[in-house]
Structure formats: C-alpha cells, structure tokens
Amino acid sequence: MRLALTEAERAATLGEIPVGAVVLGPDGAVLATGRNEREESGDPTAHAEVLAIRRAATALGDRILDGCTLVVTLEPCVMCAGTIQAARIPVVVFGAWDEKAGAAGSLYDVLRDRRLPHRCEVTSGVLAEESVALLEAFFAAKR
Asked: Known catalytic residues?
C-alpha cells in the first residue's frame, strides 16, 4: 500500500485525483503500478487500477491475472470493478472507502456479487487514514 500511496501522491502533484494502484504477482513481486491519468491523457478510463491491470497483463503476457493481488488507495468504482472481474484478480486490497462511487462494498459490491462468475477476496481500510488525507487535501485545494 505504501507504493500505491506514492503513486497517488505523484498523481496529485500532476493535478490528478490522488489514487494509486499496484498489482502484485503470485510471488508477491510488483508486476505493475498505476496512478490516475485522466486529465493528463484525456482518457476517462485512465483510472489507476485500469492502468496497473493493463500493465500487469502485458508483463505477464496474459489477460488473466490469476494469483495476483491488486492494491489500491481508494475503493474501486464500477468500471474498475468490472476490469478486476475481467482480469479475474482473486485478491483486492484498498485503503479508503468511496461512499459516492465505490463498487467493493460501499455503494455496490461488484467484486463479491454471487451472480457474477468471479468473486474476489476484499480487504478494506489498509492505511485508510493516509489515503483519505491525500484525497481531502487534494479536494480542499480545489475549493
């Protein structure tokens, strides 16, 4: 999570909402990182999770990230949860809850929905205070 927080801090310095993500391989090694790049790229899908998952799939040479873990500073949204589902990532760890758009247990629970063919183990609240502080500082500066 510390590496994901570093990515989130980097996003904030570039004017992006401070969200960072890391994909760990089955052996625990870092496969890929990502940070929000929506403003920089002009791409509405350039969320930290999506970018980290794309890079991890490239690193592994496979679209299925079996045995991998996604670590992200903010609860994934519906789009990111769909990407996690498509990549079949079995474990997701996140910091702060997203009461407005979260899809891992707050507003929706796409990652553990029994109606879907894949479910994840979800751990929340890891270094949540640090994740929340980054987000609050970013949005306070915008106001």
From this structure: 49
